[in-house]
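Intended use. Records such as the ABC transporter ATP-binding protein entry shown here are meant for training and evaluating sequence-to-structure methods. They are not intended to support clinical decisions.
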Amino acid sequence: MEKALIVSEIVKKIRGKEVLKNVSFEVEKGQLLVLLGPPGSGKTTLLKIIAGLEKQDSGSIYINGVRVDETPPYERKVSMVFETLALYSHMTVYENIASPMVAEKKPKDFIDKRVREIAGILRIEHLLDRRADKLSGGERQRVAVARALAKEAEIYLLDEPFSNLDAKIRYALRTEFKKLKTILGKTLVLATSDPLDALALGDAVVFIEKGEVVQRSTPVELYYKPSRLDIARYLTGKILNEVIVKKKAEGGKTVIMSELDIAISESVLRDLQEIPAENIVLASHPDTAIIEKSVENCDGLKLKGRFLGYEYRGSEFLVFAEYKNHLFKALKYEKPLIDFNEPVEVCISREGLNFYNLDTGALVR
Ligand SMILES: Nc1ncnc2c1ncn2[C@@H]1O[C@H](COP(=O)(O)OP(=O)(O)OP(=O)(O)O)[C@@H](O)[C@H]1O
């Protein structure tokens, strides 16, 4: 596959602090790569370096196979939309979206078709005649994205394009955005701190933390096999199920201990024996856990707890159970018919379990 973008060993210091530490990744032509990371992880700085708006201390950027380290921004064929949006406030939305194409001296018909097409996908057709200074925050955001996408470029860089939008519009825009990407057939790099953007949109995801790439994978891999416990927690918020076990050698045998009174299936015991770590966190998403009055045949971890309630999430229920001050969560598609504080059984199935070394946080299985 042809590479639209290669980021190679980028190092950047700002005021003596290393904000990018040897960052490398590649983006294939037509791919949407999501750069995911907590605030302050270096995403904006990296996008600016790709666009040529900041200079790296070392390392190289290649666009369509050409090294562009010495190429000025306007010759890089890159279009960027910033988190802090700068629209031409005295112009209409139409003029704003059209402005890069006017500057490129594109024919009027072409401009009109493209403005309307992109405005349609981003659902801002009704705003085309409005002045930019009369828009809400969310509307400005969509116009800024539209303008960036209207520009002829090889690579589109989008910095937190959905950050000012409410949850409902965000959800709708993600879907539209995917469509837009297919229509344009262009390469996009989207920086976000929201795992849902990454999971919904990315062909590939690069997880960046404190200026370092810590995982590069598909969204599904990232979600189900995060390479570190802190990434798993970041991706799921507070709904990851976690159980700590310790291995101890006793009389030539390895004994598995847990602070919880937990039944561990033979298959998981075998997995634990094989892992070269003594303190292990077993972690899994709620979608591979079951909380019911009783659970037969649990291949994984099983414990008894008390029902705490549930949260309705639109299409499913997130069910909570407590055991010895630990909270366990499971996803269920029917409303649970269990009373508050009633005894329940929790089964965390082996199929969804990831094993992390408690001391290093690294995925060990
Ligand atoms: N001009 C600057 N002066 C000092 N520090 C800076 C400057 N620009 C960036 N930094 C620092 O560099 C690091 C990376 O910042 P950057 O904006 O690239 O991260 P980010 O992942 O895009 O975060 P956010 O999502 O909050 O914008 C941060 O620690 C930030 O404080």
